[in-house]
Fold:
Amino acid sequence: MDIRSLPDEAYSADALKRDRRRFETAIFWGAVFVALLWLVAIAEWAAGVKFTALGLAPREPLGLVGILGAPLVHGGASHLLANTLPTFVLMALGMYAVPRATIKALPLIWILSGAIVWIFGRESLHIGASGLTHGLMSFLFLLGALRRDRVTLAISLVVFFLYGSMIYGFLPREAGISFEYHGAGLIAGVLAAILYRGLDPLPPQRRYSWEEEPEDEYEPESHRVDDPLEPPSPIDVEPIWDGPAPPRRGVVLQFPRRPQDDPDERPPPPTLH
Structure:
């Protein structure tokens, strides 16, 4: 077998340049999204009022505004800080691994999770970006299982290691926590992964030497290359021992005849008196 080192397209100069550019773009969009959340909080602080009108009130006509505005509003600095890092990390990972699918998935998760909470949520005011973070987590995690390429699989493992506990976010654990938004985000992320799994092209795959060899096991003699390290083909090996010699055929063995079979030696028949 030829074990020569084959070039990997993923490590070429052009591929590394594209990868660096995509990484910088992912960091940029993650920072922009988090900055938007902080700008809303700064505007609240500067105005001296809470933007509760942007919250999501289930089954209230005015609460429909919250489908778009609720992820931008937070209950306080601690609430905003708790959502800042997961939002930045998950958004950046999505824009790096599957940017086309992430751009499509974000509005779907945003609107669908809010709509589910508006229909099934408790009669309370639901605010915060935790529904988006739960949706991005389930989206990136399931996408690795559906696409099964090395980039999305690696991202899926990183997401599960960092934020795998979000899977239990739909369970009511603490008072004042919108578990409905968490569960709706998980459902929307799963749907987005199924719908948009094929938008981004697969990364180049490395081909090894054994994949370059011809599939025909028995090559013609003219195409064979003598290699001292390769054993000869079984069809070319002379047997050392052919086994026991077969018995000769066509020889008739004579057996002695019994007296009763010879008419001259038969005893006379008995005399009846």
Remarks:
- The two ends are 98 Å apart (CA to CA).
- Residues 10-195 form a domain with the Rhomboid-like fold fold (CATH 1.20.1540.10).
- Residues 13-47 form the longest helix (35 residues).
- The CA atoms of residues 11 and 17 lie 10 Å apart.
